[in-house]
Write the C-alpha coordinates for this entry.
Amino acid sequence: MTRPTDVFVRSEANPILTVADVPYPANSVFNPGAATVGGETILLVRVEDLRGMSQLHVARSADGISSWRFDRKPLLSSRGDQDPEETWGCEDPRLTWLPEREEWAIAYTAYSRRGPLVSLAMTRDFRRVRRLGPAMPPEDKDAALFPRRFGGRWAMIHRPSPLRGGAHMWISYSPDLRHWGDHKLLLEARDGAWWDAGKIGLGPPPLETPDGWLVMYHGVHATADGPIYRVGLALLDLENPGVVLHRTDEWTFGPTSPYEITGDVGRVVFPCGWTLDEAADRLRLYYGAADSVIGLATARFSEVMAIVRAAPVPGHGRAADTASR
Ligand code: BMA
Protein backbone atom coordinates (compact mmCIF):
# COMPACT_ATOMS: atom_id res chain seq x y z
CA MET A 1 0.00 0.00 0.00
CA THR A 2 1.13 3.57 -0.70
CA ARG A 3 2.57 5.37 2.32
CA PRO A 4 -0.28 7.31 3.98
CA THR A 5 1.49 10.63 3.42
CA ASP A 6 1.98 9.90 -0.31
CA VAL A 7 -1.68 9.32 -1.13
CA PHE A 8 -2.49 12.98 -1.78
CA VAL A 9 -0.32 14.45 -4.55
CA ARG A 10 0.03 18.20 -4.83
CA SER A 11 -0.91 19.92 -8.08
CA GLU A 12 2.01 21.25 -10.10
CA ALA A 13 -0.04 24.44 -10.40
CA ASN A 14 0.11 25.02 -6.62
CA PRO A 15 -0.69 27.37 -5.14
CA ILE A 16 -3.73 27.43 -7.44
CA LEU A 17 -5.05 30.69 -5.98
CA THR A 18 -3.20 33.57 -4.35
CA VAL A 19 -4.16 37.05 -3.27
CA ALA A 20 -2.98 38.29 -6.69
CA ASP A 21 -6.06 36.55 -8.18
CA VAL A 22 -8.49 38.44 -5.92
CA PRO A 23 -10.01 41.34 -7.86
CA TYR A 24 -9.59 43.88 -5.04
CA PRO A 25 -6.91 44.71 -2.48
CA ALA A 26 -6.77 41.94 0.13
CA ASN A 27 -4.35 40.20 2.48
CA SER A 28 -4.93 36.51 1.74
CA VAL A 29 -7.19 33.88 0.18
CA PHE A 30 -7.52 30.50 1.89
CA ASN A 31 -9.67 27.72 3.48
CA PRO A 32 -12.13 27.19 0.57
CA GLY A 33 -15.32 25.15 0.48
CA ALA A 34 -15.72 23.23 -2.81
CA ALA A 35 -18.59 22.10 -5.03
CA THR A 36 -19.19 20.82 -8.54
CA VAL A 37 -22.07 22.66 -10.22
CA GLY A 38 -23.03 22.10 -13.86
CA GLY A 39 -19.59 20.69 -14.72
CA GLU A 40 -17.77 23.66 -13.16
CA THR A 41 -15.80 23.65 -9.95
CA ILE A 42 -16.89 26.29 -7.51
CA LEU A 43 -14.69 27.33 -4.63
CA LEU A 44 -16.19 29.46 -1.89
CA VAL A 45 -12.95 31.05 -0.77
CA ARG A 46 -12.20 33.00 2.37
CA VAL A 47 -10.74 36.38 1.48
CA GLU A 48 -9.19 38.27 4.35
CA ASP A 49 -9.27 41.98 3.58
CA LEU A 50 -6.83 44.65 4.63
CA ARG A 51 -8.80 45.37 7.80
CA GLY A 52 -8.42 41.75 8.93
CA MET A 53 -12.07 40.78 8.30
CA SER A 54 -12.89 37.78 6.12
CA GLN A 55 -15.64 37.39 3.53
CA LEU A 56 -16.68 34.40 1.45
CA HIS A 57 -16.31 34.86 -2.27
CA VAL A 58 -17.19 32.53 -5.17
CA ALA A 59 -14.44 31.60 -7.66
CA ARG A 60 -15.30 29.38 -10.67
CA SER A 61 -13.13 27.23 -12.92
CA ALA A 62 -13.92 24.85 -15.79
CA ASP A 63 -11.09 22.41 -14.95
CA GLY A 64 -10.94 22.94 -11.17
CA ILE A 65 -7.28 23.91 -11.39
CA SER A 66 -6.81 27.08 -13.43
CA SER A 67 -8.49 30.17 -14.93
CA TRP A 68 -10.47 31.02 -11.79
CA ARG A 69 -13.10 33.70 -12.25
CA PHE A 70 -14.20 35.64 -9.19
CA ASP A 71 -17.83 36.77 -8.93
CA ARG A 72 -18.28 40.53 -8.79
CA LYS A 73 -19.27 40.64 -5.10
CA PRO A 74 -18.67 38.36 -2.12
CA LEU A 75 -21.48 35.85 -1.45
CA LEU A 76 -21.29 36.26 2.33
CA SER A 77 -19.80 39.26 4.08
CA SER A 78 -20.58 41.04 7.31
CA ARG A 79 -23.69 43.23 7.06
CA GLY A 80 -22.88 44.89 10.37
CA ASP A 81 -25.88 45.45 12.66
CA GLN A 82 -28.13 43.22 10.56
CA ASP A 83 -26.22 40.09 11.60
CA PRO A 84 -24.35 40.93 14.82
CA GLU A 85 -22.87 37.43 14.92
CA GLU A 86 -20.82 38.34 11.84
CA THR A 87 -19.36 41.60 13.14
CA TRP A 88 -15.81 40.41 12.57
CA GLY A 89 -16.46 38.44 9.38
CA CYS A 90 -17.28 35.07 7.82
CA GLU A 91 -14.71 32.26 7.65
CA ASP A 92 -14.00 28.64 6.63
CA PRO A 93 -17.12 27.47 4.70
CA ARG A 94 -18.12 23.84 4.13
CA LEU A 95 -20.62 23.10 1.33
CA THR A 96 -23.16 20.26 1.37
CA TRP A 97 -25.72 19.54 -1.38
CA LEU A 98 -29.07 18.59 0.20
CA PRO A 99 -30.98 16.58 -2.47
CA GLU A 100 -34.21 16.69 -0.44
CA ARG A 101 -34.22 20.51 -0.45
CA GLU A 102 -32.45 20.90 -3.79
CA GLU A 103 -30.10 23.48 -2.35
CA TRP A 104 -26.62 23.83 -0.92
CA ALA A 105 -26.06 24.29 2.78
CA ILE A 106 -23.14 26.53 3.71
CA ALA A 107 -21.85 25.94 7.23
CA TYR A 108 -19.38 28.67 8.13
CA THR A 109 -17.71 30.35 11.04
CA ALA A 110 -19.32 33.67 11.91
CA TYR A 111 -16.94 35.76 13.97
CA SER A 112 -19.00 37.52 16.64
CA ARG A 113 -17.85 39.90 19.34
CA ARG A 114 -18.28 36.99 21.75
CA GLY A 115 -16.17 34.63 19.68
CA PRO A 116 -16.51 32.39 16.61
CA LEU A 117 -19.75 30.43 16.18
CA VAL A 118 -21.36 28.10 13.62
CA SER A 119 -23.77 29.77 11.17
CA LEU A 120 -25.79 28.28 8.33
CA ALA A 121 -26.86 29.76 5.00
CA MET A 122 -28.57 28.24 1.97
CA THR A 123 -28.06 28.78 -1.75
CA ARG A 124 -29.27 27.19 -4.99
CA ASP A 125 -26.91 28.86 -7.42
CA PHE A 126 -24.04 30.44 -5.44
CA ARG A 127 -25.33 33.83 -6.59
CA ARG A 128 -28.04 34.49 -4.03
CA VAL A 129 -27.90 33.35 -0.43
CA ARG A 130 -30.38 33.04 2.44
CA ARG A 131 -29.02 33.09 5.99
CA LEU A 132 -30.51 30.73 8.59
CA GLY A 133 -28.35 32.36 11.26
CA PRO A 134 -26.39 30.89 14.18
CA ALA A 135 -26.73 27.14 14.73
CA MET A 136 -24.31 26.88 17.67
CA PRO A 137 -23.23 29.55 20.20
CA PRO A 138 -19.55 30.53 20.59
CA GLU A 139 -17.01 29.17 20.69
CA ASP A 140 -17.75 26.63 18.00
CA LYS A 141 -16.45 26.14 14.44
CA ASP A 142 -15.39 23.54 11.83
CA ALA A 143 -18.97 22.49 11.04
CA ALA A 144 -20.60 20.73 8.09
CA LEU A 145 -23.98 19.16 7.45
CA PHE A 146 -24.56 15.61 6.29
CA PRO A 147 -26.47 15.62 2.98
CA ARG A 148 -29.43 13.58 4.24
CA ARG A 149 -31.51 12.90 7.32
CA PHE A 150 -31.06 10.04 9.81
CA GLY A 151 -34.33 8.80 11.31
CA GLY A 152 -35.96 12.03 10.14
CA ARG A 153 -33.31 14.35 11.56
CA TRP A 154 -30.51 16.34 9.94
CA ALA A 155 -27.05 15.88 11.41
CA MET A 156 -24.11 18.23 11.75
CA ILE A 157 -20.52 17.76 12.87
CA HIS A 158 -18.97 20.71 14.69
CA ARG A 159 -16.20 21.56 17.14
CA PRO A 160 -17.00 23.41 20.36
CA SER A 161 -14.07 24.76 22.40
CA PRO A 162 -14.87 24.15 26.06
CA LEU A 163 -12.84 25.82 28.80
CA ARG A 164 -11.34 22.50 29.84
CA GLY A 165 -10.35 19.16 28.40
CA GLY A 166 -9.33 19.95 24.81
CA ALA A 167 -11.32 20.66 21.65
CA HIS A 168 -13.14 17.63 20.22
CA MET A 169 -15.57 16.92 17.39
CA TRP A 170 -19.27 16.60 18.25
CA ILE A 171 -22.35 15.54 16.31
CA SER A 172 -25.77 17.16 16.80
CA TYR A 173 -29.20 16.60 15.28
CA SER A 174 -32.07 18.81 14.12
CA PRO A 175 -35.59 18.29 12.74
CA ASP A 176 -35.52 21.57 10.79
CA LEU A 177 -31.90 22.84 10.46
CA ARG A 178 -32.70 25.50 13.10
CA HIS A 179 -33.10 23.70 16.41
CA TRP A 180 -30.10 21.54 17.30
CA GLY A 181 -29.87 18.99 20.09
CA ASP A 182 -28.99 15.43 21.13
CA HIS A 183 -25.34 16.56 21.17
CA LYS A 184 -22.85 13.68 21.25
CA LEU A 185 -19.08 13.54 21.46
CA LEU A 186 -17.96 12.02 18.15
CA LEU A 187 -14.17 12.06 17.88
CA GLU A 188 -11.74 13.07 20.58
CA ALA A 189 -8.43 14.85 20.22
CA ARG A 190 -5.73 12.47 21.45
CA ASP A 191 -3.18 13.36 24.09
CA GLY A 192 0.54 13.77 24.65
CA ALA A 193 2.84 13.33 21.67
CA TRP A 194 0.13 12.46 19.12
CA TRP A 195 -0.10 14.59 15.94
CA ASP A 196 -3.77 15.25 16.78
CA ALA A 197 -3.40 15.91 20.51
CA GLY A 198 -5.44 18.58 22.26
CA LYS A 199 -7.39 20.00 19.33
CA ILE A 200 -9.07 18.54 16.25
CA GLY A 201 -11.78 19.72 13.85
CA LEU A 202 -13.67 18.58 10.77
CA GLY A 203 -12.12 19.29 7.36
CA PRO A 204 -14.38 18.94 4.27
CA PRO A 205 -18.02 17.74 4.65
CA PRO A 206 -18.53 14.00 5.31
CA LEU A 207 -18.59 12.01 2.07
CA GLU A 208 -21.03 9.10 1.68
CA THR A 209 -19.40 5.83 0.52
CA PRO A 210 -20.71 2.24 0.55
CA ASP A 211 -18.43 1.55 3.56
CA GLY A 212 -19.53 4.52 5.63
CA TRP A 213 -19.09 8.30 5.84
CA LEU A 214 -15.56 9.32 4.95
CA VAL A 215 -14.37 12.08 7.23
CA MET A 216 -11.16 14.08 7.04
CA TYR A 217 -10.19 16.08 10.10
CA HIS A 218 -7.36 18.39 11.08
CA GLY A 219 -5.22 17.80 14.13
CA VAL A 220 -3.09 20.42 15.81
CA HIS A 221 0.31 19.46 17.15
CA ALA A 222 1.71 22.01 19.61
CA THR A 223 5.46 22.56 19.36
CA ALA A 224 7.91 25.02 20.91
CA ASP A 225 7.84 26.75 17.51
CA GLY A 226 4.03 27.00 17.34
CA PRO A 227 1.31 24.63 16.09
CA ILE A 228 1.45 22.29 13.08
CA TYR A 229 -1.90 21.62 11.31
CA ARG A 230 -2.12 18.22 9.60
CA VAL A 231 -5.04 16.00 8.54
CA GLY A 232 -6.13 12.40 9.14
CA LEU A 233 -9.10 10.21 8.22
CA ALA A 234 -12.01 8.48 9.92
CA LEU A 235 -14.99 6.41 8.79
CA LEU A 236 -18.45 6.75 10.39
CA ASP A 237 -21.33 4.29 10.35
CA LEU A 238 -23.64 4.87 7.37
CA GLU A 239 -26.94 4.82 9.26
CA ASN A 240 -25.66 5.96 12.65
CA PRO A 241 -22.98 8.56 11.96
CA GLY A 242 -22.38 9.00 15.69
CA VAL A 243 -20.44 5.70 15.57
CA VAL A 244 -16.78 5.81 14.52
CA LEU A 245 -15.80 2.65 12.61
CA HIS A 246 -12.16 3.47 11.89
CA ARG A 247 -9.67 6.24 12.59
CA THR A 248 -6.17 6.49 11.16
CA ASP A 249 -3.29 6.61 13.62
CA GLU A 250 -1.10 8.48 11.16
CA TRP A 251 -1.76 11.76 9.42
CA THR A 252 -2.29 11.56 5.67
CA PHE A 253 -1.38 15.10 4.67
CA GLY A 254 0.74 17.76 6.33
CA PRO A 255 2.61 20.96 5.51
CA THR A 256 5.85 20.30 3.58
CA SER A 257 5.87 22.71 0.61
CA PRO A 258 7.27 26.24 0.98
CA TYR A 259 3.82 27.88 0.57
CA GLU A 260 2.48 25.64 3.39
CA ILE A 261 5.45 26.28 5.67
CA THR A 262 5.60 30.06 5.34
CA GLY A 263 2.73 32.55 5.39
CA ASP A 264 0.56 34.43 7.87
CA VAL A 265 0.34 31.24 9.96
CA GLY A 266 3.13 28.87 8.95
CA ARG A 267 2.96 25.07 8.84
CA VAL A 268 -0.77 24.86 8.19
CA VAL A 269 -2.76 22.78 5.72
CA PHE A 270 -6.47 23.40 6.29
CA PRO A 271 -8.86 21.64 3.86
CA CYS A 272 -12.53 22.68 3.87
CA GLY A 273 -13.62 21.16 0.54
CA TRP A 274 -13.21 18.20 -1.76
CA THR A 275 -14.75 17.04 -5.04
CA LEU A 276 -15.12 13.41 -6.08
CA ASP A 277 -15.08 12.07 -9.64
CA GLU A 278 -16.03 8.44 -9.02
CA ALA A 279 -15.64 7.37 -12.66
CA ALA A 280 -12.06 8.67 -12.67
CA ASP A 281 -11.39 7.36 -9.12
CA ARG A 282 -10.22 10.91 -8.33
CA LEU A 283 -10.64 12.81 -5.08
CA ARG A 284 -9.55 16.44 -5.19
CA LEU A 285 -8.74 18.20 -1.95
CA TYR A 286 -8.82 22.00 -1.77
CA TYR A 287 -7.02 23.49 1.19
CA GLY A 288 -5.75 26.67 2.73
CA ALA A 289 -1.95 26.76 3.00
CA ALA A 290 -0.31 28.77 5.78
CA ASP A 291 -3.51 30.90 6.04
CA SER A 292 -2.33 32.70 2.91
CA VAL A 293 -2.99 30.80 -0.34
CA ILE A 294 -5.00 27.86 -1.73
CA GLY A 295 -3.56 24.49 -2.70
CA LEU A 296 -4.96 21.45 -4.51
CA ALA A 297 -3.94 17.85 -3.82
CA THR A 298 -5.38 14.82 -5.63
CA ALA A 299 -5.71 11.21 -4.51
CA ARG A 300 -7.03 7.98 -5.92
CA PHE A 301 -10.33 7.63 -4.07
CA SER A 302 -9.88 3.84 -3.83
CA GLU A 303 -6.52 4.34 -2.07
CA VAL A 304 -8.02 6.76 0.44
CA MET A 305 -10.76 4.22 1.20
CA ALA A 306 -8.21 1.38 1.53
CA ILE A 307 -6.28 3.41 4.10
CA VAL A 308 -9.29 4.30 6.21
CA ARG A 309 -10.71 0.75 6.03
CA ALA A 310 -7.38 -0.63 7.28
CA ALA A 311 -7.24 1.89 10.14
CA PRO A 312 -7.81 0.81 13.76
CA VAL A 313 -11.27 0.55 15.29
CA PRO A 314 -11.40 3.12 18.12
CA GLY A 315 -11.96 1.82 21.61
CA HIS A 316 -10.72 -1.69 20.84
CA GLY A 317 -7.91 -2.01 23.35
CA ARG A 318 -6.49 1.34 22.35
CA ALA A 319 -6.08 3.30 25.55
CA ALA A 320 -4.56 6.24 23.67
CA ASP A 321 -7.84 6.93 21.85
CA THR A 322 -9.61 7.84 25.07
CA ALA A 323 -6.71 9.26 27.04
CA SER A 324 -8.26 12.74 27.12
CA ARG A 325 -11.51 11.57 28.67
C1 BMA B 1 -8.04 27.50 12.94
C2 BMA B 1 -9.00 28.31 12.10
C3 BMA B 1 -8.57 28.40 10.65
C4 BMA B 1 -7.09 28.64 10.48
C5 BMA B 1 -6.28 27.73 11.40
C6 BMA B 1 -4.79 27.96 11.33
O1 BMA B 1 -8.33 27.63 14.30
O2 BMA B 1 -9.10 29.60 12.63
O3 BMA B 1 -9.28 29.42 10.02
O4 BMA B 1 -6.74 28.36 9.16
O5 BMA B 1 -6.72 27.91 12.73
O6 BMA B 1 -4.46 29.28 11.70
In short: The helical segments are 258-261, 301-309.
